[in-house]
C-alpha cells in the first residue's frame, strides 16, 4: 500500500493512500476498516510536556516507570432474563480471560444480580491467588440468566465490599477500589427511579471508582454515564457484535493497572486561566492526562505543581516545565514539518475547545436546574459552532429552509434502516415504536374489536408469524361508545426447517410449546424449553422470553392485578426486544416497523408557543415513504419492555391518522374471527 511516514526530530506526518487496485485486492467492496496509527512520544520530564501557541497551552502528563498499585476490584454482572443467549455467553468468555489476568497483589470479588443479588465471597474481597481465580472461573461458568434487574441493590452490595473495614488496613497495603458494573437493561425492580439510584450510590461508594458498561442498545446508558460521573469513573457502550467479549476485555485492560490516584495538576503564579479539568481520580498505565487552557502573553516556562497518591504515600512535585514550540521558540526540526506550525496552533486551540465542550456537556448531564442546563447547553453550542464540532447540541441544528417558516427550528429525527427498533404492543392495545439513538418514541392506539385475532408480525422469509387474540373490557365512564380491548392469548409459530414447525401459545396462566412433543410451562414458576433452535424461557416475574434463532427475540409480559379496579383486566403485552434478524419483507401491525424508514421533522414555533396545548411539547411532521402525518410530542405514561410504567416522550399519531400511517385498514390485519 502507499504508506508514507515523514519523520524529523520534532514532527511526524503519516499518509495512507492505497490505490483502487490495492483496495479491490483486499475486498470487492473496497476498504471498510479503522485506520489506526500506533505511536509514542519521548517524554523526558516526569511532569510531562507543555506546548503553547497563540495564547493557548496544552499539557501532556504521562509519567513512566511508576510501580503498579494493587486494586480492590468488584465485578458486578447483570444476569437478568434479557442477558439470556449470546450476551451471557460473551460475558462469561470475557470474565474468564479477565480473571486470568489479575495480579497476585490484587483483591477481587464477583456480584451477579437480577431481581436478587448474589455475592460470590460474602462480606470481603479475596486475594487473587491461583486457587481463588480458579474457583471464581468455576462460579462464572455456572451463571444462569433469569429474572428482572435490580441495579440499586447491586450497587449497594458492591459498596459494602469496596469500603475498607479499617483505616489501618488501607494504610498498611493501599489498594485502589474499582467497581466494574455491567448491565444490558434498565432498572425494573426495587428502587427504579434514576435520581434515587444516583443518590444511594454516591453515599455508599465513597472513594471507589465506578466504571459502567452498557451492553447493547437497551441498556440505560444515560444512567450509567451519570453514575460514573458521580463516582470517579467513566461509562462505555459495549455493542452487541461478534467481538463483544473483546470489547469487554479491552475496557478492563484500560483500568487494570492503576499508577496514581487523586492527581491534581496546578499552574502557579497566575500564568494560566480558563483551564480545563485538572483533577483526575486515577491515572492508569498506558493512558495520558491532558489539560488545556489559556496563558498570559510572554510566558516562557510554566510552573506546574502535581500532587497524587502512589503505591505507598502522597506525592507532591513542583517544577518549571519548559514550553516547547512556543512562538519565537520553534526548533529547526519543527519548522521542517510541511505546513509549519499553523496546523499545530489550530490543533491546540481546537483541543482546548474540545475538552471545554466535553466538560460543559458533562456538567449539563449532571445539572438538575433547567436554567443551568440551558446555560451550559448554550455555551457548548456556541463553542461547537465556532470550532465546527459535531456534538449532541449541534448535530440536530439545521439551517432554515423554504420548508420551515421564519422563527422556527427544524429538527430531523431518523428511524429505521437497521431493523433493530424495539417495538411493542401492550394495554388497550397501545403501540410504541422506539426511534433509535433517541430517547423518544412513536405512539399510536388501535381500537380493536373483541374476539378479533390480529396479525402482529409475519416474516415470510424466516417463517415467523405472531397473532394476538383480543378480549373485550369494560368501557370508561363518559366514553361508553369506545370499545376497550386487551390481548389475552398470543400465538408464535416458527417454520424451523427441521422435523416440524414450532407453535408457542401463550395464555394468562401458561405457555404451551408444541413441536417434537408438547410442553406446558406454568407462568407461576420458572422453566425453559428448547426445540429445534427455539428457546422459550419463563422467569419468576411473569415474563416469557422467546428466542427464534440469531437476532430474533420476543418478550411477553403477563399483567395480573392483586386487587384490580373494574377497568383493570389481566392481559398480555408483546415486545420485539431484538428484531435485527427479521427480513426486510416483514409485515404485520408491529412487524412492518422493523425496517421502516421513518423521519419526524419537529417544528417548534417560538412566536405562538403559548397557544399550544399544555401537554404538547412540540409539533411535527412524520414521513414514511410517500405518506406524511401531523404528530405532536407529548409526555406520556409508557409501559415499554420490563420497566415499570414511567413517563417518556412520545410522538403521538392522532386517532384519525392511524389508518393512513399504517397504509391499510384495521380489517386487513384481522386474520380470524372466533
User: Mind describing the biggest β-sheet?
Assistant: 13 strands, mixed
In what range is the share of β-strand residues?
35-45%
User: What's the total helix number?
Assistant: 12
Q: What is the average per-residue confidence, as pLDDT, rounded to a whole number?
A: 82
Straight-line distance between termini: 68 Å
What are the low-pLDDT stretches, counting only 5+ consecutive residues below 50? 166-172, 326-335, 395-421, 606-614
Structural class: alpha+beta
Overall shape: globular
Strands of the widest sheet, in order across it, are: 18-33-34-35-36-21-20-19-32-31-30-29-28
What is the number of beta strands?
37
Total number of distinct structural domains: 3
Radius of gyration: 29 Å
Helix proportion: 10-25%
Describe this structure in words.
The longest helix is centred in the middle third of the chain and has 25 residues, at 342-366. The protein is α+β, with helices and mostly antiparallel strands and 674 residues long. The strands form five sheets. Strands 18-33-34-35-36-21-20-19-32-31-30-29-28 form a 13-stranded mixed beta sheet. It is globular and about 85 Å long. It contains twelve helices and 37 strands. The termini are far apart. The protein has three domains: 71-256, Rossmann fold (3-Layer(aba) Sandwich), CATH 3.40.50.410; 341-392; 431-669, no CATH class. GO terms for molecular function: serine-type endopeptidase inhibitor activity. Pfam families: ITI_HC_C (PF06668), VWA (PF00092). Belongs to the ITIH family. InterPro entries: ITI_HC_C, ITIH, VWF_A, vWFA_dom_sf.
